[in-house]
Specification:
13 strands; Rossmann fold; seven-stranded parallel β-sheet; single chain; alpha/beta
């Protein structure tokens, strides 16, 4: 079976959708599926990723340089049509760029079944950002593509329920994201990350790892870290500044007098990020909205207890795993949880152990890919020809 994945970029700094697709595509190849990715690019950061995917048996069609907010390119429509014509199923990731629209329209014309993974972009919180532009796009283009899809893929029940008020005609399919467990079975040695960041010394530290973006809740975490009065405990903020929010985050650090305790490392890739999870005493993600939270399950898989907001959609799984704490999006609640962590370290160490066992059991991409093979085989045609 020939599967075409469509996405607007393969730059890892784009965050969750790109990371999820890389793992999904590579694991699907292992099940015997013939997998191609069609992606646009604006900057060349995604090109090494494309080469790595090809080395693992995934075909990649890279169209660029794309321009503008919709990531357009003169050859995109023709390239997309050719790729769709050669596919048995089209799997579209994301919503608001030209490549997703072209793929949906080509699939409708050619009667190739397609599904859409919104990656949280249809949640009320996300639709409220640039609200009028997104509502107009939904009315002019997106609603038709959503309604005519074979299914809409949600990564958890919470996402499906948040989108339900939109009354999309295409049926829902709930399937979780995963991890390449081969990367997590043999973890880095304890102390490896500290050796690279000697300012941390031997002090237990809290880790935030992800894009430095307002959505990620650093406006909650940084003031809460100050309010918790954790002594000389450091906070490590690891991630790229893709949307220009890092100066605001640094200003918050200065405002609360935390310059000596908060360390910005930039983006951590590959083994480096695992070293950070292993050495961290607590992983914190106090997002205003998080559709899935791949970094949460990565931290769990490394045995690191987690502190997340109740707006991270897999908070139910974290509770079920007893892998850490779930709190409302508030400075007071987060500060309280940080104080609990400091005063009851033994409980959180135990939470890290149970979280690792839970993650390794439930989030194996290879197991999930087998289910995807069955999902694709049962995919109905798109709902209306054009």
């Amino acid at each position: 079976m020939r599967i075409l994945h469509v996405i607007s970029g393969l730059d890892p700094q784009n965050g969750g959708p790109t990371t999820a697709l890389i793992g999904m595509a590579q694991s699907q190849v292992q099940t015997g599926l013939d997998v191609t990715i069609l992606a646009t690019w604006k900057i060349r950061d995604g090109l090494p990723v494309a080469d790595g995917l090809r080395g693992n048996g995934v075909k990649v069609i890279h169209v660029g340089p794309a321009t503008g907010k919709l990531s357009r390119h003169p050859s995109l429509a023709a390239e997309t049509d050719r790729a769709v014509a050669a596919a048995d199923v089209v799997h579209i990731h994301g919503l608001f760029e030209e490549v997703q629209h072209q793929a949906a329209r080509a699939a409708q014309r050619r009667q190739v079944p397609y599904l859409i993974t919104p990656h949280g972009m249809l949640s009320p919180w996300n639709l409220a950002r640039s609200r009028w532009a997104k509502r107009l796009y939904l009315f002019l283009r997106l609603r038709r593509n959503l309604d005519r899809a074979a299914v809409i893929h949600y990564t958890c029940d919470v996402e499906r329920d948040l989108v339900a008020p939109l009354k999309i005609k295409a049926p829902p399919l709930v399937e979780r994201l995963g991890l390449d467990l081969a990367e997590f079975r043999e973890l880095p040695s304890l102390g490896t990350f500290r050796a690279k960041w000697p300012l941390l010394g031997q002090k237990p530290f809290v880790l935030f790892l992800g894009r430095i973006d307002y959505k990620k809740g650093l406006d909650i975490l940084i003031p809460a870290f100050a309010a918790a009065k954790l002594g000389d405990t450091p906070l490590v903020i690891a991630g790229p500044d893709r949307d220009g929010y890092e100066p605001a985050a640094r200003a918050l650090v200065a405002q609360h007098g935390l310059q000596d305790r908060v360390h910005f490392t930039g983006m951590l890739h590959g083994r480096d990020r695992l070293e950070a999870y292993v050495d961290a005493a607590l992983f914190a993600l106090t997002s205003h909205q998080e559709n899935f939270g791949i970094t949460v399950i990565e931290a769990m898989a490394c045995g690191c207890p987690v502190l997340i907001s109740d707006q991270v959609n897999i908070h139910g799984e974290v509770k079920a795993a007893e892998a850490g704490e779930v709190v409302p999006v508030s400075v007071e609640a987060t500060a309280g949880a940080l104080r609990q962590w400091q005063s009851d370290r033994a409980r959180f160490i135990a939470a890290g152990k149970t979280g690792r066992a839970f993650a390794l059991h439930h989030y194996d991409w290879n197991t999930i890919a087998v289910r995807w093979k069955a999902h694709y085989a049962q995919m109905p045609t798109c709902r209306t020809a054009v």
